[in-house]
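Shipment paperwork, digital attachment
Item: protein structure file
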Amino acid sequence: MRRLLLALPFALLPLAVAHAHDDHDHDHGTLGAHEHGVAKLNAVLDGNTLELELDSPAMNIVGFEHVASSDADKAKVTAARQQLEQPLKLFGVAPAAGCKEDAQELESPLFGDAAQTDEDGDSHEHGHAHAHADVNAHYQLTCATPGKLTQIDLGPLFKTFPQTQKINVQLIGPNGQKGIEATPAKAVVAF
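Attachment content:
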């Protein structure tokens, strides 16, 4: 039921950024279907609940998209997963908002997850050897004083994963919904 909170509004939200569309269709003929350096973030503030859903090519997070076989690659995957498990260090939210993590879900073929399927049953696994791997992170936070949460600073996320050059952000909050393009130089997004 919680996923509905994210899924419904974003299905209706037109983004100003032309190439920011659902990249689960993996249409390789379309620019932006899986673009290295570009991630997507959905952020919903509903009452005292803040939900964040990050969808990024694995290249942005660990520097490669193949299943880790070498010790060095396995170490990169382990380190990236540990960083992703700490959303309050990746997403800068006002301490006055009193946000605490309630739940998280991390998915990626690099984490040893099996082929993933969407709610509509589409498989994310490709039948060819040069499959694109994504990292999906979903966080649910409860904020004691949500009125103090007026923006999210993505600077820590850009610093932690420097291969991420742009994040197409879709925000839904008390002031409505909007699409914003965040970059390391313009990393703060306001609700």
